[in-house]
Design goal:
- This protein is mostly helical.
- It has one domain (about 1-70).
- It contains 3 helices and no strands.
- The chain has helices spanning about 1-10, 25-35, 50-70.
- It starts with a helix and ends in a 10-residue tail after the last helix.
- The model has no long low-confidence stretch (mean pLDDT about 85).
Length: about 80
């Protein structure tokens, strides 16, 4: 959840229509962020994100999370 909170500001647009409308730290809030990572524009007038968009977003989030957690964890290979 902390990683999602850290990347959320980079995914929100400048207009109110492109802000995450869901309560912070809720499942819809997290899904909105994952959908944005998957390429969804975030406009309410657009169709909701589908499974391909969510899948792309989860794959991208996994890569971001691994990079985000590396400095925090002690499981860094130094060879």
């Amino acid at each position: 959840m902390q990683c999602l909170s850290d990347i959320e500001p980079t995914l929100q647009g400048n207009t109110e229509k492109q802000q995450n409308p869901h309560p912070r730290l809720s499942l819809p809030w997290a899904t909105w962020i994952i959908a944005r990572l998957g390429g969804w524009s975030g406009y309410r007038s657009q169709r909701p994100p589908g499974m391909p968009t969510i899948t792309r977003g989860l794959q991208r989030f996994e890569a971001i999370f691994i990079g985000w957690i590396l400095p925090i964890s002690r499981l860094v290979c130094t060879r």
